[in-house]
Amino acid sequence: MKQTTAIRLFLVGLPIGLVLTTAVSMVWHFNKPKEDGAPKVYTTLADEISVQAVSSYVSNLSKVIGERHSSKPGTLDRTANYLESTLGTRNLGYDVKRQVYDVGGQPARNLWVEIPGGKRLNEVVVVVAHYDAPLGSRGENNNASGVAALLAMAENFAREKPILSMRLAFLTHSTAPHLNTIDSGSARYAQLLERRGEQIRTVFCLDGIGAFPATGLPTTVLTESFLPNKGPFLSLLANRSSASVLALSFDCLAPLLRFTCHQAVVPENSQRFLDESTAGAFQSAGLPTLLIRGSGRLGKDELPVDTTALAETTRAISTLIRVLANP
């Protein structure tokens, strides 16, 4: 008899308990504190990017190869060969793609690798950095730092299976005299993206992300009102049409950096600042574009790279790319 009563109570109480449990779970789910910043799993994956890795890449570009400029075309060939070898099937395992075009009778090479997406394969998050340097400079910060970040990301993303595709592009001829001309690597690559007809979600342009002095301007020519007067800072810059991706990127990056992350929509009367960078060509093509720069001067006379800060910045950007590629 007691056993029968217990069974009846269990059968009556079971559905009531399930209903109460479901109700409590729903209340907790919809009222739990919102997770700040990027999901922890993305930052954990990015933690594998080491100071030693980015330091080695910067050294190979700026010290072993040295000057990388169209006035010395052999140096650009050496750089492109180094990138293809590092990224290729015998090392990081990628099928390296090429865009080859002619500049003054000399072949120029843009290179890229891709981490294919899953359900939304045709939607692409693009990250670019130019691998040439200003004439007369080893280009440690401008722009071995950006290229080192891309190489470290390629190594970190090698086994990734994102929802959207991720593409890392290494561009040539992006300093004077080719900057902001049809011969620049960014102009040619922007044209290629237009012809391919993909859905480009964002183009991130990495330029001078390795020097973070407390003082100094991010340009050797102009003092811009939309930039902080003092460093160290990482600046995120975009035009008005890319304001939404600017805000999203800032919200992701700011909590991941120990120095200031600064965001600004560049006013129309200062668009020259963006036009005279790798970002200009992508903006002109109507693509959502974000320029990411450090607080160090860019140009022939530049500061050395802070590899600890560069590794930290690379980890943060890697996390951002994962967030955007896995909506």
Overview of this protein structure:
The protein has about 325 residues and is α/β, with parallel strands linked by helices. The chain contains 10 helices and 8 strands. It has an 8-stranded mixed β-sheet with strand order 1-2-4-3-5-8-6-7, sandwiched between helices. Helix 2 (about 40-45) packs across helix 10 and helix 3 crosses helix 5. The longest helix is centred in the N-terminal third of the chain and has 30 residues, at about 1-30. The radius of gyration is 24 Å and the shape is globular. Mean pLDDT is about 90; it is low at about 20-35 and about 220.
Briefly characterize the structure:
The chain is an alpha/beta fold. Helix content is 42%, strand content 19%.
The number of helical runs is: 10
Shape: globular
Distance between the ends: 57 Å
Average residue pLDDT: 88
Estimated structural class: alpha/beta
Strand order of the largest sheet: 1-2-4-3-5-8-6-7
* Low-confidence blocks of residues: 22-34, 218-222
Order of helices and strands: HHHHEEEHEHEEHEHHEH
Beta strand %: 15-25%
